[in-house]
Amino acid sequence: MGSSSDVPALRRGLAVLRLLAGRPGPVSAASVARELNLPRSTTYHLLSELTEAGFATHFPEEKRYGLGVASFELGSAYLRHDPLERLARPLLRKLADRMEKVAHLGVLHGAEALYLVREQPRQPQTIVSDVGVRLPAHLTASGRAMLAHVSPAQVRALFPSVASFVDRTGRGPHNLPALRRLLTIERRQGWAVEDGFVTVGFASVAAPVFDHGERPIAAITLTFRHVCDTPCGQTWPELAKEVRKAAEELTARIGGHAAAP
């Protein structure tokens, strides 16, 4: 067993890995030392150890360091364990039972929302958003819960023209300005709502899940029967409170941090 004195070194090594992972390209040892407020000798020692273990790569001509193959292998192994789904499923199970509505976990896949997990309440309900189903992100509450926390440039790239805005029921944003207005409201609100945008007679409430970099990586959604002739403007704050609580717990479980409104 290592001694307690090994822990600070481990934490520093992990901090170096996080810094390398968060940069678009290799960085110099001096930059690492400056950003992490480490002595240069300590920084070079950590980078040397990480390089020897395969978690970092040294580019001698550039005098810079980047992530190594072992980091890629570790990340790939993490994904094979389906951690997001495994951590989310018990939360969705409790949410569905408590609220007696269908609970989902969805992620952004381009301009679509892709559903990874679905949990039914004790009395099952038939809805369109099943596991593996992809739906237009601008119409779904889950999609917009995530889109509300990505940059305007990313939103524009995903929806470059009016043709990008699929219409299913005549409801929902039909162009980029309308989508942006809705995303601004939902970001400030803390949750997203869709009322018959995807399927007439159904509504949804969704809240985002964030990673350690405050990026939206998923959304938790409750979907339920709701019939109105025209969009009635309901935001279901009581349901949203429970959905947000589940999303915040999943964010904490994966070591994430919620973005500021």
Give the amount of beta strand, in percent: 15-25%
Structural class: alpha+beta
* Number of continuous helical runs: 9
Mean pLDDT comes to: 89
The gyration radius over C-alpha positions equals 22 Å
Distance between the termini: 44 Å
Give the helix proportion (percent range): 40-55%
Written as H for each helix and E for each strand, in order along the chain, the element string is: HHHEEHHEEEHHHEEEH
- What is the topology, as strand order, of the major beta sheet? 5-4-3-8-7-6
Per the principal axes of the C-alpha atoms, what is the gross shape?
elongated
Biggest sheet details: 6 strands, antiparallel
Keywords: DNA-binding, Transcription, Transcription regulation
Protein name: IclR family transcriptional regulator
Pfam family, one: IclR_C
InterPro entries: GAF-like_dom_sf (IPR029016), HTH_MetabolicPath_Reg (IPR050707), Tscrpt_reg_IclR_C (IPR014757), Tscrpt_reg_IclR_N (IPR005471), WH-like_DNA-bd_sf (IPR036388), WH_DNA-bd_sf (IPR036390)
Task: Compose a concise summary of this entry.
This protein is of the alpha+beta class.
